[in-house]
Amino acid sequence: MTAQGDDGLTAPTASGDPVTRGRTHGVASVRAAMSRVRGGSAVFLAVVGPPGAGRTAFLATVAGLAAGEGFAVRHGRGVGTRRDPRPTGLLGPPGPGTHSGPPEVYLLDDLHEADRDSLAGLARWCDGPRTVPLLVVAAFRRGDPRTDRPCVHDLLAAADHVISMAPLGRAGVRALLGERGATLTGTQLSDWTHATGGNPALLVSLLDRARTSRAVAPADLLDATRARPAPESLRSRVSEVMNGQPESARRLAHCAVILGDTGDAAVLARLSGLDPAQLAEGRRALLRLGWDVDHREPPVLWDCVSEIAEEGLPPACRAALHTRAVELLHGSGAPPERIVPHLLEIGPGEWAGTAGVLGDAADDLLRRGSVDLAIRCLRRALREFPPDSAQRGTFLAALSTAEQGVDTSAALRHAVQANQLLTSVRERAEVVAGVPLTLFLTAPQTASVLASAGGPEALRDSGADTEGLALRLEARVRLGTVAAPEAPQDAVERLRTLVRGPGSAAERELSSALVFAGTLGGRLPRAEAAGLVRRLLGQEAPQEASAHAAPALLIAAGTATGVDGPVSRWLGSALVAARERGDEALVTRLLSWRAYGALQAGRLADAWADASDACAVAPGPLTDDDWPAVVGLTSVALEAGDTQLSGRLGALLEERQGVGISLAGLADRALRARSAPVTELPLLLDELLKAARLAEEKAWSSRALFPVDLWSVAPLLRAGRKEDALRLLSRACEAARTAGSHSEVGRTLRLWGTVVGGAYSLSLLAESVSVLRETGNTLELGRALTAYGSRLRAAGRPGSAELLAEADRIADAAGESVLWCWTGTLRGEPRHAVPPGGRGLSDTERRVAALVVLGHTNQETAAALGVTRRAVEKTLTRVYRRMDVEGRSGLVPVVRRMAGRAAFAAGMLSERL
Predict the structure, then answer these.
(1) Contact 595, 633 (CB under 8 A)
(2) What does the pLDDT read at residue 383?
(3) How far is Cα of residue 559 from the mean position of the Cα atoms in its chain?
(4) Helix H or strand E encompassing 730
(5) ∠585-586-591 over CA atoms, to 5°?
(6) Distance of CA 270 to the CA centre of its chain
(7) What is the mean pLDDT of residues 594-622?
(8) Of 19-33, 153-167, 310-324, 632-646, where does mean pLDDT reach its minimum?
(9) What is the mean pLDDT of the chain?
(10) Alpha-carbon distances of 643 from 589, 780, 840, rounded to whole Å
(11) Alpha-carbon distance 18 to 177, whole Å?
(12) 901-911 burial, b if ≥16 CB within 10 A, otherwise e?
């Protein structure tokens, strides 16, 4: 049941009403008064409370109690309807004679609104003989100026008892919320009690808003609810209460919400423009309402006042107050973050120091990781300058830096705009050097950025001490022109002119770019590239890793040249730091890079695990700017043959529009081409083959860095285009030989040998086995041995048994990491997905079999899987039957080899082994 409250809200009423729980003294006073009335007395009770405290709900509870005791209940209000504004139901002097019938209760709401004559008449009754047994309960709003009239004070003084409606405590708040189906924890209950000050009307308003909030975690519910607009009923009643206050109180409240939650009483006093007497009057008036203007409590009430000020104050008045707040806060030495909200509310040119404060605030925000707000500050600062101002160029450069991790296109566009305004060669070079290094490989706008700087030569000719800056600028020019046919050889020659000592950060940046370019084109000898990667990466702090810095180039080059150990260790340390910072985007990239390195080293289970994790934690799409991650994850997904991983990755890829070739687009086509209907293959293959031809024209020899042609082989065979597939394999093999990558040569020869037939196939596979024996990639060697041995046996040639036996031994060793994946863990970390493989066993059966093969008892297996020992025994019985083995001793070698064969079978073109 509900009763209309004095503030226009509804508050629940019933026996044991939550509004009256915790206010038992009031109920007890009412019961005592009713006892006196039954004895023939007349009693007058006054109920006083601030807005929203539940006075009307309390009167409704009294009505229920009185009716239950056999009283006749009469209702009245201090003000009438709009048609008849006279007070309704107010008592006049009772007539003479004795009372007959049941005792009566008069409930008078909002009596402070009654006119003076009505109140005087009631006061005369109170002071008179009261010959008729009667209970009068009247409610007054504390803090209303009309309550401060002498006639009201006289009436309150004449009351037999005054019931004060204090705010609800924790128990009362819990009861009120529980009555409406809401249950909060201890901490949440304390937070809601503080936010509302225990005011029932505010609580009800907040709860109504909470019911419309979707999918919000309980811990975030209060903030999410406060962020929603207050109901119109609450706003209108709070506005009515404010309008009834003196001008000083209204002015003080409006200035408080304009100033915000700064807690600076001196600034608030000066902003309001009130003299000390007016200031004291305003504070007293608001405190009588229960509104603490200095501390903005209760917060939910001040949220509502803020909305009222936003809607009610004229824009010019709001702007003037924000401008004055800026002047006062800046003059008081307030930090920039307290001034910024006001600067964002005023127009350009309204305060002379706007740009400087916004710039300082942006620097501080960027240091604390608040990138979005920093960008807002810088964009607002730009409005302070004319279009051709050099100062505008400085702020555009700062904005470009802030946007790099959020919007690459905007960052590059603003870098070009900044350099069009900056007058110094050094300043323009600094803008270009501030653009992340690896973006010059992928972002088409970087050509305009480079052109706007004038190049390293112009910088050196400027005469200033700019050697380090010139090296950084050169690194970007080298990457921006890496597609030129002569670029790889030029990079190698320039690399050999650099000092091979520790070097500065700028020298390392240039060296990294040169190593990458030389590796991509196959002009830098593999051993030399590997040594440089080890040295340069050892000088980079993994704790400072970022997505587009020089280490990304070193990791790519190290992956291509087989520097597995140092790269993997560096990435492991960088991952720890990135996870501690909560940088999910960087974690995604680092996992992707490590996955590709593991794949190139033949550690398929590690590669699959890292790729799965990368796709799971990715906070947003992967674009061309994330090219190492795109290449790595796509290669792992294709190699592993995992359709679920491919699907998750495909959903993350975001193709860049308006460019010649999008690497993310190529990756998407390669993933779709593995399972698309044959009729769709021609369209998908066109883009892939176009990119492969481009790689050939640019002489990009490293298939590890640009493996598009190898991505295309399987779809070409599906489409029946065997000759095209063979041409790609031939070119890939030649490029791998040029790059000096034995692992890539051996792998490509294995692929080539499985596509062709006859004696040529045997020749290619024999060479593949021979080359792969010189590498550490035992997984690829096992695949080559399997393919060669199977074809020798099919041709009736000798030697197949020895080759296949060696392949089995490799499978037995390679299977252990796959077994750990099947158990649901790898490197001690829990996994929620299981890689493919296992000859038709279910995920549960594979987990149980893997744990048993790895040495776990049935009880340990049950504990690891969270099931009973009996369930494990039943699963094992099914596995024994399916694998056609007798017990554990027979199961171990069969499952171990099955896991290794699953790793073999995940390889590209593995169906042809």
Answers:
(1) yes
(2) 93
(3) 31
(4) helix 722-739
(5) 105
(6) 40
(7) 89
(8) 19-33
(9) 84
(10) 21, 21, 16
(11) 8
(12) bbbbbbbbbbe
| CA quadruple 782, 785, 790, 793: dihedral, nearest 10 | -140
Distance CA 559, CA 597 (A): 5
* pLDDT of the residue at 184: 79
Q: What are the tens digits of pLDDT across the range 453-464?
A: 776 666 666 555
Q: What sign does the dihedral 465-467-468-472 (CA atoms) show?
A: positive
Q: For residues 616 and 139, what is the distance between their CA atoms, to the nearest angstrom? A: 60
What is d(CA 422, CA 232) in angstroms, rounded to the nearest whole number?
52
Identify the residue whose tokens are 């020992």.
869
Residues 634-665: tens digit of each pLDDT: 999 988 888 888 999 999 998 876 555 688 88
Helices (H), 618-660: 627-640, 643-652
Regarding pTM above 0.85, the answer is no
Q: Which residue has the tokens 């996994």?
A: 831
Residue owning tokens 């009423």? 13
Buried b / exposed e across 89-125, counting CB within 10 Å, b at 16+? ebbeeeeeeeeeeebbbbbbbbbbbbeeebbebbbeb
Tens-place pLDDT, residues 421-433: 998 888 898 999 9
Give the N- to C-terminal CA distance of the chain in Å, as an integer: 77
Residue where the block lists tokens 């489409």? 719
Q: How many CB atoms lie within 10 A of CB 576?
A: 13
pLDDT at 84: 40
| Residues contacting residue 223 through CB under 8 Å, at least 6 positions apart | none
Which residues make beta-bridge pairs with 164? 48
Taking CA 436 as the corner, what is the angle to CA 433 and CA 440, rounded to the nearest 5 degrees?
90
CA distance 764 to 747: 11
Distances (CA, A) of 532 to 542, 555, 687, 734: 17, 11, 35, 24
Q: How far is CA 341 from the centre of its chain?
A: 23
Closest C-alpha to 7, from 239, 291, 176, 194 = 239
Q: How far is CA 237 from CA 8, 9, 11, 141, 300, in A?
A: 6, 9, 14, 13, 14
Q: Residue 121 in contact with residue 87, Cβ under 8 Å?
A: no
Q: CA-CA distances (angstroms) from residue 172 to 12, 165, 193, 200? A: 13, 12, 9, 9
* Token duo for residue 769: 């086995």
Report pLDDT digits (tens) over 546-591: 888 999 999 999 998 888 899 999 999 999 999 998 999 999 999 9
Do residues 85 and 91 make contact, with C-beta atoms less than 8 angstroms apart? no
